[in-house]
Amino acid sequence: MSEIDHTDPANTTVKPAFKTFEAWATLIVSILGAVMASGLLDPADPVQAKFLKIIGMVLAIAPVMGLQAGRSYLKATANKVAGDVAIARIEAGSLK
Length: 96
Hints:
This protein is mostly helical. It has one domain (17-92). The protein is 68% helix and 0% strand. The protein contains 2 helices and no strands. Helix 1 (21-38) runs antiparallel to helix 2 (46-92). The longest helix has 47 residues, at 46-92. The protein is elongated. It starts with 20 loop residues before the first helix and ends with a helix.
């Protein structure tokens, strides 16, 4: 994880959206949803029906994966900041 510069008003330390897990997960889920809704796959065909089931499973799991990735990043950042604050207090001699 890169250091966050809180004095940087442009917040240039944040990576571009297209490099995030959430952006790619959203894109993939959107494409899969469009394929399912388009009728390109025929549920009567046994092979295509299996693809529809797989797509359905991915669409069911994807939101949970996105939520967990976001929460994990948030918790890691909060823990790092809390550690930085504790170290700063120790160095300043004002640990309370």
